[in-house]
Design a protein that fits this description.
Elements (H helix, E strand, L loop, with lengths): L3 E6 L4 E7 L1 E6 L5 E6 L2 E6 L7 E3 L10 H11 L1
Antiparallel strand pairs: 1-2, 3-4, 4-5, 5-6
Amino acid sequence: MKTTLHSFEFKERKSSAVAEGAGSYTLLQNGEFILARVNGDFERYKVGSSDKKKTISTSDLKVDRVPSEEWLTVFNEV
């Protein structure tokens, strides 16, 4: 089943499709953009605009963390 993320314009009382196949999404902190996970990719959409999406590449993303080394710290902070 495909899900579709919609936005709603309160002034015009109109709903419009933003992203088809969105598994999850978040509104970015500044409120200007929506970041959605669509078919395994991250895509950015401008809120209230019909502009095309921008795919965010994560191919060069590196995480420098070792969970087993951080677990004790995280556990003790809670």
